[in-house]
Write a structure and sequence with these properties.
Layout (H helix, E strand, L loop, with lengths): L13 H12 L6 H9 L15 H4 L7 E7 L3 H9 L3 E6 L2 E7 H9 L4 E6 L21 H14 L4 E8 L5 E7 L13 E5 L8 H15 L4 H9 L1 E5 L4 H8 L54 H11 L4 E9 L3 E4 L11 H18 L2 E4 L10 H9 L2 E7 L16 H18 L9
Parallel strand pairs: 7-8, 7-9, 9-12, 10-11
Antiparallel strand pairs: 1-3, 1-4, 2-3, 5-6, 6-8, 10-12
Helix pairs in contact: 1-6, 6-7, 7-13, 11-13
Length: 444
């Protein structure tokens, strides 16, 4: 299915094709239980895939890639921030060491500046841990077409309260789909109800960040008649955007092999691919922790909101004055992060700061994650949660989903981790819905 489904109909006219697809989707079943079963017990026998047998060095997609996974000595948040600015995409912080992805030019630069690199694993070698088959091994994950198919099906079955619409297009003209749950308003219609938004996949390789909001949407609509969920649906305006970076997500799995791609697919003037969408927002853009090197995984772009995807997000938030809460899903590290991310100082407004801490702690307790201010790890300017809080007053959180470490699977943990991750994070998201009407009630 993953190699057969065509994306052509998504690029045709919306009014005709979408109506036809929605009608067909109504005939299909995508229950939460069914999706969880496919996650836990993927049916690999009936998949019609055949890759020619080849030696690892012949089959390895990242042969010739100039990036490394490195571990560097850095004991303070200021040192970690400087490493980010020099181009290291930090994934793990442990004691006096950090680990992450760096281009060969960054590795050379770090050495020249005296940083101690204690471990370096090449992407262009033949390390088995870097060789991943997709979609066979991870068939439960949803690519772009499959995600849309699920969204269409659940919308068709719940058309009285759910609407599915595009809030804009990506660089390669893919629609950025949004599921809205509201008893009184459809698509872009105004609503006075307090709003909550859940966005996945700012970063292409973080495929688990698509699954959590997507299956949350399925779960909410299946459980719409439970008293607690019914109350959320009747009193709130809920938006779920599972894939903000569809071009990058599709590029990362193109050809059946992961590419470890983080950014969108912008072709920069020097030939390097991509802009980091979560460094491209305007608030403190291009400052601490941002890289201005196009080869870096954390390249912030030529200017704030230079990318179609972040422009779409900007327009969405600016056109919805009722939004109160927001989760931006990422992976990995098992963290619940809150502003500020771009500076080391805490949120200045004491009432807001206390509410952030209270909500983050509760969601961390639910998931088993760790709650902290983002910049306790390192400063990173131009991210979504800082901008949405600073410019729109939305209580915004970054979730770094499971696993906790690179050694547990990193960006590509397989299917075994999905069921628990999805269930835990649905519970956390539902908690956020419970306080969306008044986030300050968490400190009353």
């Amino acid at each position: 299915m993953k190699l057969i489904l065509s994306l052509v109909f998504f690029l045709t006219s919306f009014s005709c094709a979408y109506a036809n697809d929605l009608g067909q989707a109504a005939e299909k079943s995508f229950s939460f239980k069914q999706l969880l079963k496919s996650i836990s017990e993927p049916d690999l026998k009936n998949l019609n895939f055949s890759f020619p047998e080849a030696k690892a060095e012949e089959n390895f997609v990242l042969r010739g890639d100039e990036r490394y996974f490195i571990t560097v000595l850095a004991s303070t948040k200021e040192e970690r921030t400087r490493l980010m600015e020099l181009g290291l995409d930090i994934q793990e912080v442990e004691g006096n060491k950090v680990s992450g992805i760096a281009h060969a030019k960054t590795v050379t630069l770090l050495s020249q500046k005296g940083y101690v690199i204690v471990e370096k694993i090449t992407f262009s070698g033949y390390a088995k841990e870097f060789l991943k088959d997709f979609p066979i091994a991870d068939s439960a994950y949803h690519n772009y077409a499959e995600m849309v198919e699920v969204l269409q099906a659940i919308t068709a079955k719940n058309s009285d309260i759910a609407s599915l619409y595009s809030i804009g297009k990506s660089l390669e003209e893919r629609e950025i789909w949004t599921l809205r749950i509201n008893t009184d308003a459809k698509e872009n219609e105004k609503s006075d109800k307090p709003g909550a938004v859940f966005i996945g996949d700012h970063h292409a390789r973080e495929h688990i960040s698509v699954e959590v909001p997507l299956l949350h949407a399925v779960w909410l609509l299946e459980n719409r008649n439970k008293p607690e969920i019914k109350n959320y649906i009747e009193t709130l305006d809920i938006y779920i955007i599972p894939m903000l970076n569809p071009d990058g997500a599709e590029y990362d799995i193109e050809g059946g092999k992961y590419k470890w791609h983080r950014k969108n697919t912008r072709k920069n003037p020097d030939g390097n691919i991509g802009v980091d969408l979560n460094r491209n927002y305007a608030f403190r853009w291009g400052g601490a922790g941002a890289s201005h090197s196009t080869y870096s995984d954390t390249y912030c772009g030529p200017s704030a909101f230079s990318e179609p995807e972040t422009q779409v997000a900007k327009k969405f938030f600016e056109s919805h004055d009722n939004l109160k809460t927001y989760i931006s899903y990422h992976s990995y590290s098992e963290l619940v992060l809150y502003p500020w991310g771009g500076v080391y100082e805490p949120v200045e407004n004491e009432k807001d700061r206390k509410a952030f801490i209270a909500m983050a702690k509760e969601m961390a307790d639910i998931t088993g994650y760790t709650a902290k201010q983002s910049s306790e790890l390192y400063a990173a300017t131009g991210d979504a949660t800082d901008w949405t809080y600073a410019e729109r007053g939305v209580f915004s959180f970054t979730f770094e989903l499971s696993p906790s470490r690179w050694g547990s699977g990193g960006f590509y943990p397989g299917v075994s981790i999905l069921e628990k991750t999805v269930k835990d994070n649905i519970a956390a998201a539902n908690y956020l819905l419970s306080v969306t009407d008044d986030p300050y009630k968490t400190i009353k």
